[in-house]
Amino acid sequence: MIISIDWIKDFVNIPDMSPDELAVKFTLATCEVEEVLMTGELLNNVTVAEITEVNPHPDSEHLHLVKFETGKGIREVVCGAPNVAPGKKVPFAPIGTTFPGGFTLTPKKIRGVMSEGMLCSETELSIGSDDSGLAELPEDAVIGETMLDHLGRRRDILLDIDNKSLTHRPDLWGHYGMAREFAAVFGQDLKKPYGEAWEKELTSKFTEENSPVTIEVDADSACLGFSGIAVDGVTVQDSPRWMKDRLEACGLRAINNIVDISNYVMLELGHPLHMFDRDTIKGGKIIVRRAGDRDKTFTTLDEVERELNPADTLVCDTEGPSSIAGIMGGLDSGVKETTSRIFIEVANWVDSEVRMTSSRLGLRTDASQRYEKCLDTRQVKQTLLRTLDLVLQLCPEAKVVGGIVSDGNKEEKAPLVLEMTPEHICRVLGKELETGKIVLILESLDFSVEMKGELLSITVPSYRATKDIECDADIIEEVGRIIGYDNIVPVSPLNTISAVRLSNAKKMARNIQDFLVLRARAHEVLTYPMVGAKLLEKSSWHQMNEELILANAMSPESDRMRPSLVPSLLQAAALNQKTNSSFRLFEIGRSYLPDEKKFSTERNQVGLVWFSKKESPFMDLLNNLEDMFAFLNLKVKMSRPDYRAVNPYVDPEWKGLHPNETLNFQVMGKVSGFITSVHPVVCRDFKIKGNLVIAVLDLADFEEKQIKDKTGYKPLSRFPSSIFDCTVVADEKEPVASIVSVLNKLKLKELDSVRVVDIYKMDNGTKAVTIRTTFTDREKTLSGEFISSAEQSVMETLEKGGFPLKQ
After folding, report:
1. Which stretches make up the TRNA-binding domain (predicted)?
2. What tens digit of pLDDT does each residue of 702-751 get?
3. 474 annotated as ligand-binding
C-alpha cells in the first residue's frame, strides 16, 4: 500500500527529517516501510524552453539540430521529433536528469554531433499518453520555469507499506488513520477536520422530501449496515489536478470526478463505497439479499461473467443484482459520462463472508481487501458525509435529495473497556514509565483513559476493537511500540529453566533429521498441510480427501488436508529442479485421511525426494535409507510390492509407481512405507526433466518397533568385517529386490548386510547388478577358509536363484 506524506500533512505536521529517517522511525513503531519513493523529482529537473532555430542534421534526413532558450542561455540538442518548429515551447531535460526506469541523461554524440540534453514528449515525463512528438506547452508558459511549477504539481514522499504488517489494523488502510499513527509516533497534534461542526454544515443541506431510493436489507444477509444518499445535478468530468495526482501517486488511475471521489475517500478514510447511476436502480429500491437459487451468474465491472454461490450476498434492485457485496459492482451500475443523478452507497459487511466469496471467485479488489479486515460500522456515516462533501465541492450545481437512508444496521456493541495498573504495564515491558506518560501515549492513539484508584480504565476506540485490541497484552504493546522497543534495555529472564524430556516420537524425528542433514546431505523442507484438488489431480493421487475440505479455506489451492506428503514433495521438487541439477529434500510432517469414527486419522511421516538430471538416484536413496535404519538400530525388511494387497501409504494403481524400481518397507510384518522411482508420466505433468525418486516412511511404526523390540544392546564388533562384491546378470525388467531377497535366505549368522551398489544396463535387454555382502563375527576374526566358503555360498545361491555371475 502506498502512503502519500503530502496527504498525511493535511492532518498532522511532520517533523523536519529525511525521508529515510521518517521511514525507519515509522517501521520501528507501526509497520514495515519497504521502500521510500520520491515523486516530482523528474519534473523539478525539467524546465520550459522555447525553440529559436531548427536546422537539418548534416548526416541524417530524420534528425534536426534544435537551438532553444532555457532562461540561462541558448542550448543545442539533436532531436528527431516531427513537430519541432521555432517559437514552440517544450520541456527540456538537462544532463543528469534521471527518467523512470533508471535511465540518466549523459552527453552523447549522435551521428557526429554532440547533444547535451533532451527535449521531451508527454510519455517520457509521465504527464500524458501522446508519444508522437514533443509535448507542446501553452504560449504563456514561463521560460526557465520547472515543469513541476508549470503543471501546478507538488513534490511528495511516498511510503510503500508492506500489507502483511497491516492485516490486523483496518484503521491504517486509509490516510487519516495513518495520520493518527504519525501524530502518536512523532508526538504531534492530530487535526480533526471531520468533527461536529463539519457534520452539521453538511446535514443542513439535506431536504425535507423523501429520498428517491429506499433500502431493504434481508436479516440473513452478510450486511452489517447499509446507508446511502441521493444527489441530483452532478456533472461527470475530469477531476481536478490535485485529486488526480494523489490517486495516481497511490497507484489508482483517474477516471472521472465522481468515480475518483469514491476512490479518494476510500484511500483517505479506509472505508470503500460505491457510486450508483441512480437511473439504473430499477424500481428506486435497493435490496440486499443472498443469491439463493435465483441468480447463477453475474457480470462485474471488469466485464467478466462470474459464477455465483447461493450463499453470496448481492446488492440488487427490483429486477436483479447490481453488485457483489463488498467486492465489485456490476457492469451496468457504474457512473457514465451522461450520469446526472447518483446514489452514494456506503455499507459494511461480515469480513469472513467477503473473504470467502473473494477467494472462491479469485477476485481481490481494493474494497474486498479492506472489508475482509473487519471494518468499523461506526465509520459508515463519516465516509458517506465526506463523499457528499467532495461531490458538492466538485459539482457546485449538485443538490441533495432528501437525506441519509439506512437499513440493516446491527445493534452496536458496548465499548470495550480494559483495566490494568501502570505497574503491570511497566513490569511486562521491562521499563519504568510515569503514569502520565502512559496516559499521554494512549490518548494520542485515541484511547479514552480514566483513573479508578490505582487502575487505568481504558476504553478502546471502536475502530480498534473490531479484531485488533482484545486484552491487556494489546494495550501494553501499544505503549511499547510508541516509546520504542529499541529504548527498552534487554534483561535476561530470571525464571528457573528445567530440561524438557523429549517423547520417543520427538527423539525419533530428531535422530532422523540429524542423519539426513549431516550424513545424507539432504535439505529439510516444510510444505503446507493443506493442498488443493488441482495438485492432487496433477499428482494423479486417487485419495482426494473430499471429507476433509475446510469450511473457511483461504484459497482453492489449500482447501483440504493433504492425504499424503507425496503431492507436496512433487511440487517442491518441480520448483527446485528449475535451478538445481541435483538435490536431496526431506520433510517430517503429517498426512490426514478421513475416518468414520474419529473424523480423521493423522499419520506422522517422513517423505524423501532425491533428484538428478544425469542418472537415477534410486540406489543412492535406498542405500541412504539402509544406513539410516542401521543408525536408528531398526530392523526393516524390504520386499517387492504385492499389488493385490492394500498399501496404506500409496495406491498400487498410482501412476507414479515405477514397475521395476519400487520396494515396500516392512516393520513387524506390516508395510510401513515405500520407495519408488517416480514414473516419467507423473514427472512430465510436473515438468520435471530428470530422474526423481521418492520415499515415504511411517514414523509411528518405527517408534512402536523401538518400544516393542526387546533385543539387548549389541556392541560394535572389535573384529574386521569382510566385504564381497559380485556382479550378476538379470533381465532388464527384473526388480533388484528379487536378487536381494534370494541372498537374505542364506542361513549364515555372520551375514551382516546385503545391498545393491551398482546397476548397469546392457544392450541385449539385460542388466548387470553388483551386489555387496558384508560378513562380521562379533567374537573372533573371520578365517580365510570361512570367507572363501561364504563367498562360494553367495555365488551358488545366486546361481540357483536364476542370477548367473557376469563373465
Report:
1. 40-148
2. 776 555 554 445 667 788 999 999 999 998 888 777 888 888 888 888 88
3. yes
Those residues whose C-beta lies under 8 Å from the C-beta of residue 149, and which sit 6 or more positions away, are: none
For 619, half-sphere exposure in the C-beta direction (CA atoms, 13 angstrom radius) is 16
Cβ atoms of residues 735 and 640 within 8 Å = yes
Q: Answer whether 224's CB lies under 8 Å from 377's CB.
A: yes
Q: Are 701 and 672 in contact (CB under 8 A)?
A: yes
In a domain, 704, yes or no: no
Q: Specify the number of domains making up the chain.
A: 6
Amino acid at 674: F
Nearest to 3 by CA among 249, 263, 169: 249
| Amino acid at position 610, single letter | W
Tell me which residue range forms the domain holding 744.
722-800
Query: DSSP string spanning 542-570?
Result: S---GGGB-TT-SSGGG-EE-S-SHHHHH
Which residue type, as a one-letter code, is found at position 772?
R
In 3D, which of 418, 430, 502 has the Cα closest to residue 458?
Answer: 418
477 is in an annotated binding site: yes
Pairing status of strand 214-217 against strand 285-290 = parallel
468 annotated ligand binder: yes
**Dist CA 601 CA 659 (whole Å):** 29
d(CA 58, CA 320): 69
The verdict on whether residue 478 carries a ligand-binding annotation is yes
Measured CA distances, 691 to 81, 511, 680, 767 (Å): 57, 28, 8, 18
Q: At what angle do helices 379-394 and 257-269 cross, to 10 degrees?
A: 140
pLDDT digits (tens, 9 = 90+) for 191-241: 999 999 999 999 999 998 999 999 999 999 999 999 999 999 999 999 998
Nearest to 22 by CA among 8, 40, 39: 8
Residue 207 lies in a domain: yes
